[in-house]
Structure formats: structure tokens, C-alpha cells
From TrEMBL:
Coiled coil: none annotated. The lineage of its organism: Bacteria, Pseudomonadati, Pseudomonadota, Alphaproteobacteria, Rhodobacterales. InterPro entries: MFS_Cyanate_Porter, MFS_trans_sf. Residues 1-14 have a biased composition (Low complexity). It comes from Paracoccus cavernae. SUPFAM superfamilies: MFS general substrate transporter (SSF103473). This is MFS transporter. Keywords: Membrane, Transmembrane, Transmembrane helix. The chain crosses the membrane at residues 46-68, 80-101, 113-131, 137-155. Gene3D superfamilies: MFS general substrate transporter like domains.
Amino acid sequence: MSAAPTFAAPTTPAHCTQQSAPRLMPMPSAPVQRDVPRGTAQARRLVLATIAVIGLNLRPFMTAVGPLSGQIHAATGLDLARMSLLTLVPMLLMGVVAFAGPALQGRFGAKPLVIAALAALLAGSGARLFVESGNQLIATAAVLGLGAAIIQAVFPA
């Protein structure tokens, strides 16, 4: 009787022992249909426009003081030291609210805070139409500064 043939274990070439990246399947030729709600593109444009409008309205109440300082002095009698409060008070509020922003957002949520801040900006800007004294103008700067401070603290979230 003859012995059964023996087979040597197959050897694997060195270039095949390394793991290779999985092969990708070819993409289907038909476009993939997504379930995108109707009006999503319009909603995105509206959100972007809203962000732009909010961003454009956060600074004019402070930056307008310099060019209008002569008219502000003539209309309200504010001297330069008190006129500086028109920009100092909002800046102080922005600094203070920046620290309180996360706590406020945790307690009330970003959306109600942004709405309240926009209401403060609207109220402060509207009140400036009716101010008769320098102190009233400084008070509107505080309201506007608070609104801008809240938006800056919570809007990026």
C-alpha cells in the first residue's frame, strides 16, 4: 500500500498578510432620494437673515455716539464725561453678563433669552425716540446694553 499523499500547508505571500482597506461598493446610478421637509431651504435662509439682522443691530447704539456727540450734547446737555457712559454702561453689562450667560441659559434656555434680549433692544431703541434728558439717554443705553449682552452670551449656543 502506498502512503497517502501529504500536502504542504499553503504559504501566504508577504504582500497579502497585511490587512487591506475594505472594498467599497459601487454607487447606484440613480440619485438617492432624501426625505427633506418642504420649505427647509426657505427656513435656512430665514434663519441666516435673522442672524444677520441681529448681528447688525448689536452695535449701532454704541458706535453712533462718537459721530453724534455734538448733537447729543446740544440736545441733552451731557458733558463728555457723562456722554462716555453711553458706551461704558453697555460694555460693562456685556462683561458682567458674559459670566452669567451660561447660568441664565441653563435656567431659562437660549430661545427665551434671545427673544427677551431682542425685546430689550426694541424697547431701548424705541425709547430713544422719546428721551428728553441725558439721564434718560443713559438709561436707554443700559437697556440696549443688557439686550446686546444677553444675545452675545447665549446666541452662539
